[in-house]
């Protein structure tokens, strides 16, 4: 799967509230702050089928928000504090697009120099610098922002950045564990915040892939975090939440839930490629079904079964067949089987095999932690079985 929606960061849509005029009247600076909020809300919730339509809408909103700043009376940006807010909003508005914008960085840099206590300016500056690939400088900005006090948004951004830093790093596993730690710290600050739970789900899902795509515990943690994120109604407009949760379900072989999740993601953002994932799952399930239907001729099957008689177990496990297994984990037993067919598909895990045991029963074996085809025979200790006729190791 693409890791783009797991690793990248974006400037958060929060902004400091500019002071109102005497008597409680709104100021043009406050109106510009609201326009910036609406601009980022559009970015995060508007997913038309044509990406050009979104780009045009963002450009129009950006021009309108900048026009509000251009119309500010000079007295509303005289003091360092107000000028800092002005520079922050201008930089934030310019940084709404996915690509790096030098002018946005310049304005955000001015903002933190004029008002070093402006936490959201540090946060947006870090994201802007991240876009140009300077990850260490971006983390420094986030760390300076976090130094002003605990903040769930900053912790989430640090968590995402650490996952990005992990790519190609010798300390990949350590950085992903740090990402999980910071994601949990964000949740501790607000246990009901859906974005923090979503970020934790992404951290666990990344950890699954970094660890070799075999540890189901990471997947279960990931799905649980995504389910907690869904409880926050503000997350319902996030197509990546449904896409990533469906991805975790896919690798857990919860294909019915995965299909539902990808279908929801496709409806919310047609450009995400979730419809392709739906077709991949349907294709895989068809292959598995066809493999089970393709029975060997009696003579060849007898040859397969007889070849199992000479295989000896090298453990204390009791020899079993697929028919004697109970649903769930089967401890202290081992199933001997002959590999009939390796079933090729497009996912990195698991590997699928059509197996025949010595009682001439066929079943599908899913194997995690391997990246190459297996040998002709297999003996599996402590298999986990499903009533569908599939089991995994």
From TrEMBL:
Biased composition (Polar residues): 1-15
Pfam families: TTC5_OB
InterPro entries named in the record: TPR-like_helical_dom_sf, TTC5_OB, TTC5_OB_sf
Residue ranges constituting the Tetratricopeptide repeat protein 5 OB fold domain according to the UniProt record: 317-373
Annotated protein name in UniProt: Tetratricopeptide repeat protein 5 OB fold domain-containing protein
Segments of this protein annotated with the region Disordered: 1-28
């Amino acid at each position: 799967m693409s890791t783009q929606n797991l690793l990248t960061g974006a400037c958060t849509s929060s902004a400091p509230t500019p002071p109102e005029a005497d008597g409680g009247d709104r100021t043009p600076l406050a109106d510009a702050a609201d326009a910036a909020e609406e601009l980022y809300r559009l970015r995060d919730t508007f997913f038309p089928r044509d990406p050009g339509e979104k780009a045009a809408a963002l450009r129009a909103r950006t021009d309108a928000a900048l026009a509000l700043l251009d119309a500010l009376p000079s007295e509303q940006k005289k003091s360092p504090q107000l000028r800092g807010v002005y520079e922050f909003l201008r930089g934030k508005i310019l940084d709404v697009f996915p690509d790096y914008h030098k002018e946005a960085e310049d304005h955000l840099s001015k903002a933190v120099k004029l008002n070093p206590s402006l936490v959201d300016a540090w946060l947006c500056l870090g994201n802007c610098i991240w876009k140009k690939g300077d990850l260490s400088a971006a983390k420094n900005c986030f760390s300076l922002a976090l130094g002003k006090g605990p903040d769930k948004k900053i912790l989430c951004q640090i968590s995402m950045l650490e996952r990005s830093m992990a790519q190609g790093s010798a300390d990949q596993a350590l950085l992903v564990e740090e990402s999980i730690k910071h994601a949990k710290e964000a949740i501790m600050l607000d246990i009901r915040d859906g974005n923090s739970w979503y970020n934790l789900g992404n951290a666990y899902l990344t950890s699954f892939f970094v660890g070799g795509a075999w540890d189901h515990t990471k997947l279960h943690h990931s799905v649980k975090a995504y389910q907690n994120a869904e409880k926050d109604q503000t997350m319902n407009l996030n197509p990546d939440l449904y896409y990533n949760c469906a991805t975790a379900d896919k690798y857990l072989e919860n294909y019915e839930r995965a299909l539902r999740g990808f279908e929801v993601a496709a409806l919310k953002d047609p450009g995400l490629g979730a419809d392709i994932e739906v077709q991949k799952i349907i294709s895989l399930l068809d292959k598995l079904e066809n493999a089970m239907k393709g029975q060997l001729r009696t003579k060849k099957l007898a040859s397969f079964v007889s070849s199992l008689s000479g295989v000896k177990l090298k453990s204390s496990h009791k020899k079993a067949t697929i028919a004697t297994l109970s649903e769930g984990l089967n401890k202290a037993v081992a199933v001997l089987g002959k590999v009939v067919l390796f079933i090729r598909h497009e996912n990195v895990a698991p590997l699928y095999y059509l197996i025949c045991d010595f009682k001439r029963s066929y079943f599908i074996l899913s194997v995690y932690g391997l990246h190459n085809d297996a040998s002709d025979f297999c003996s599996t200790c402590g298999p986990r079985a499903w009533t569908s006729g599939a089991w995994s190791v």
